[in-house]
Amino acid sequence: MRQRFFQPVISLLFAALLMTGCGGKGSVKPLSITLDSIVIDTTATLEKGDVCKVHLKLHLFKGPHAAALNDSLLRMGLLQPDYMALSYEPINPRTALPAFVRRLVEEQAAVFKRIRSREADTQPLRYELSCETKVLAGAGDGVIYIVRTRTADSTGEPLTWTVVRNITPKGHWIRLDEVYDAKDRERLPGEILTQLADDLQLDDTTAVRKAGYFVGINAYATDNFMLFDDSIRFVYVPGEIAPKAVNITLDR
Questions:
Q1: Could you give the CA distance from residue 138 to residue 17 in angstroms, rounded to a whole number?
Q2: 53, 64, 215, 231 - which has most CB atoms within 10 Å?
Q3: Same domain, 148 and 180
Q4: Count: domains in the chain
Q5: pLDDT at 17 over 70
């Protein structure tokens, strides 16, 4: 198989300034962690005019503990496919991210080849992956790391979703059971339904399901959330509790 790759365009932006982010409902405070960013753009032209295009624009951590922080960050399942989670070697973003792109292109080329083995007359195939990040100030000295991912191919509508991780300055990923104890977690579904009914301007929680939310399933608190000093925002991806993405914010 002949492959022609446009050399990945990689740029590193070294930003020594502390960025600012939303600290909750209307408040703004500086980030506790200094950031860099890396941008990778790759277009691979494969057999029969097939194309795989990858765009990554990711924030990285900078400072004396950057190596450990970035290693931890890239093991949190933020990029899909999650090639890095099972690696036993230290992860350096400057080598791991280009390697991620190369592997994705190779696997997509194999997918295209399988499709063509069944459908010889298929028109040129295309796959695109775009990941961009945003970092906000979170609860205490933590930060909220947000990844917005978009995929598109030759077969249907693009898919877009958001993944969130709440991270301490030492690189610890804060889980929901660290924010609420077991008793408090039991009351969250009811509070989420009540808040959603209020957001939708519905009379009661029964009307929430009639409006197309949590249909056929119990309400629940997703592990995908943004943790602020005064509130928590649950981020549901498209198709999870409704056809479109839904954000529900509760006071803390």
A1: 18
A2: 53
A3: no
A4: 2
A5: no
CATH of the domain at 103: 3.30.565.40
Q: 130 and 244 in one domain?
A: no
In the block, residue with structure tokens 């839904």: 246
Measured CA to CA, the distance from residue 188 to residue 241 in angstroms comes to: 15
Tokens 């999870």 map to which residue? 240
What pLDDT band is residue 11 in, cutting at 50, 70 and 90? Answer: very low
Tokens of 214: 């949590």
Q: What share of the chain is helix, strand, coil (3-state, %, to 5)?
A: 25, 35, 40
Work out whether the CA dihedral 12, 150, 237, 222 comes out positive or negative: negative
Tell whether 189 and 150 lie within a shared domain: no
Q: Are the C-beta atoms of residues 238 and 244 closer than 8 Å to each other?
A: yes
Domain range for 205: 176-251
- Strands 51-62, 126-137: pairing is parallel
Q: Do 71 and 191 belong to one domain?
A: no
Tokens of 33: 């962690």
Q: Which amino acid is at 105?
A: V
Residues 111 and 181 both lie in one domain: no
How does the average pLDDT of the chain come out, rounded?
A: 89
Could you tell me which residues come within 8 angstroms of residue 114 by beta carbon, excluding any fewer than 6 positions away?
Answer: none
Is residue 15 located within the same domain as residue 85?
yes
Which whole-number Å values give the CA distances from 83 to 24, 74, 77, 198, in the listed order? 33, 10, 9, 40
In percent, how much of the chain has pLDDT > 90? 77
